[in-house]
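Q: Fold this one first, please.
A: Sequence and structure below.
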Amino acid sequence: MAAARFLSQEEILMKDKSMGQKALSIAIMAAALLLMVASLILDASGSQFAGRGPMLVVGIIAFLFGLYKFPTPQHHRAIVYIIFLFPLLFTFFVTVIIPLILGIGYSFTDWTGVSITKNVGFANYSTMFHDPAFIYSILITFIFVVLNVILINLVGFLLALLCTSAIRGTGFFRAAYFLPNLIGGIVLGYIWQFVFNNVLTKLTNTSVSVLSQSKSAMLAIVIVYIWQYGGYIMLIYITGLTQIPSDVLEAAAIDGANSVQTLFRIKIPMIASTVTICTFLTLTSAFKQFDVNMSLTNGAGSVSNFMGSYLSNGTQMLALNIYNTAIAKNNYAVAQAKAVLFFIILAVVSLIQVRVSNKKEVEL
């Protein structure tokens, strides 16, 4: 009975301590929330109080501390995970989610990049879809994406097969093929511009550069982009190929499978997830192509007749068109509407690609 009474008293003390700790944690979190709300109100009201920024930071830290000290053993591990993930989630929210929401709102206004005077509804979207240059940029972007998704994955996979073969010097080849990916797109574009305008014209003994015509210039952009990105995709394929169990390949060789049969019936099915990743990366990267496009041709190129109009942006892809609309034409509202459409296109196409690729993985 005495032992039972002692345990009961200890439990009561623990319960009282837990209640006190809960009350303290709640008080800290409530004070932190008030501090954050006050700092946001001061900022929204245009106050010049210099301490509103530190108030927000202190409020966030205090709230996380109160959350951490909250005595809930069954959920304590989850709280710790949330606290550790908070900096990443907060950064993602501030740099991606909030700008996306604000951008969608700006697309329905006459935003000048600085101020807004009125809502214009769908006027920016109407202007966008009546612009032949923009429609043409979407068209050539899709063509560019299809070519690059096919060719980069093909080149990357072939290079990966070469660099995982039994030949000598595979380490050198891996480094050499990956090196172009380390060069910035702007620098890369200017280097290849010199090659196309000077070196190639002398080698072919012609006075006309391939960058002077829209079709050949687009082909030049495709070549440069494959040269830059192929080595990166190669490394991912190398990772997938090296993870294939050696006993599976040995069993195939014992069963009499030749190299072609081994490639198509064993290696490719076993790296289906790698193919999905590489396809997704090349798809999204090709859609967002900007730096090489700007530095190599700056979108220049003549199109004699498209939707009844003459175009001077025969190599201007979607990202560059949005940039020029905002910066060169100083039309931020229409550029924002184009960016919203760009986001929708990229999201839909990426989701479709991942879904189709996942089905293929199951089939393989």
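Q: Good. Now the second chain.
A: Here it is, same layout.
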Amino acid sequence: MKSKKENIAEYILYLWQLEDYLRAFPEQASSNTELMEIADMMYSEGIMEGGHLQLAQNALEEMEELHNELVETEAPYRAVIMHLEPRLNLLKAKTNNPLMSDVEACLTLLYQVILLRLKQQEISAETDEVVKDATQLMRFLSKTYYDDNQTAI
């Protein structure tokens, strides 16, 4: 499994992808130990129809805590989020969860783009620009999370 400490954003996106895969192909869980473990967690948490694993939720909460800290303490980070926020608000308004955090909105955007690319669908230039900014933000958050966890070891 992807390591949360290595890249927390990729870890969350990977879990979301596994969830969707197991919802679409539950019979595949028996073909792989990792899939079986994830499927067991999904069944026990009652999210086979929708929602996210507690593992993913916990990691998202950790990212949001770090995000809030960085908004307060890091001017360059705050500048990126302020530049991105109006476009994130438009994205949030188009979802069934308009009150989601900026971090969740970035991850949701990145995940939706992954799905579009898998389907070989085009992405507009405007969406691509938002994706670049969201990727930059998630990359910075993941690196900071990694660095913080390296010093904690």
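Q: Anything worth noting on the second one?
A: The chain has a mean pLDDT of 93.
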